[in-house]
Amino acid sequence: xxxxxxxxxxxxxxxxxxxxxxxxxxxxxxxxxxxxxxxxxxxxxxxxxxxxxxxxxxxxxxxxxxxxxxxxxxxxxxxxxxxxxxxxxxxxxxxxxxxxxxxxxxxxxxxxxxxxxxxxxxxxxxxxxxxxxxxxxxxxxxxxxxxxxxxxxxxxxxxxxxxxxxxxxxxxxxxxxxxxxxxxxxxxxxxxxxxxxxxxxx
Length: 202
What we know:
By secondary structure, the protein is α+β, with helices and mostly antiparallel strands. The chain is built from 8 helices and 6 strands. It has 3 domains: 20-110, formyl-coa transferase, domain 3 (2-Layer Sandwich); 115-145, no CATH class; 162-195, no CATH class. Strand 5 (131-136) and strand 6 form a beta hairpin.
């Protein structure tokens, strides 16, 4: 979320901040209330903008001087949002997602129920591998987030969370501590460690 702070160069445009209601960054990158639910519209390119205008039956918007260029749309952002808000209220969120996808416009139904409910119950999380089952040596089977990035020729290994101090002895050994020195640190409660039981995923 803070990656932008680490990228600096001459002429870098200022970071866009969400509006006061936290709907989004601008009229073409924000949430809209639908007839049922909410959608998030992500309309970046000029082609997507023209496709959106055609899809909603308002092709003249693309030629309107207030919205004809990216800068014009940003300058007249509130006016553009005011045009789009009532339009999105004419269909259900799920209908908008399907309809606009057919027209090459990115628009997704916003999940309701919170992040935890979405992770546990949504078919999208399961189908994309973002919610996966693994094994824990003492808690047995449980679910966890899957990898955010996958590689076609490298199957990801989803291991369990580590125990407190699980790698203490290994790390101390790598930097030259003897077993006697490790035990001394342990007895003085400077370090701790635990032993992992047999792990079926290891």
